[in-house]
Design brief:
23% helix; alpha+beta; Aminopeptidase; single chain
């Protein structure tokens, strides 16, 4: 494999269609506000809205590292932190015991 360059930057108006396409691929709502993008080989492969920490990425490419790097960049830039995410716990149904007569 040859090394590729990953560029992290603020989204520009020309990136809107690419960011919207990523949201469509993930069946997610479009990102709003200031957006950071990760670009590889001239194509936007991931995007992050730092204000709410929502990310979208190309589901057909390995993008976890790019999203992680976007989050690190947002932290370095002092992006307003979204509410910390809690680990989801499965909801347990309450068991009721019925008396059998």
């Amino acid at each position: 494999m040859h090394p590729t360059t990953l560029t992290l930057r603020h989204a520009e108006p020309a990136d809107a269609a690419a960011v919207d396409r990523l949201a469509e691929l993930e069946e997610a709502a479009p990102l709003t506000g200031d957006i950071l993008v990760a670009e590889r080989d001239g194509a936007v492969i991931a995007a992050l809205a730092p204000a709410d920490d929502r990310a979208v990425a190309d589901i057909f490419l390995p993008t976890a590292r790019a999203v992680k790097m976007l989050r690190e960049l947002a932290a370095e830039l002092g992006a307003p932190a979204a509410r910390p995410r809690r680990a989801r716990r499965p909801r347990l149904a309450l068991l009721r015991t019925a008396a059998v007569r």
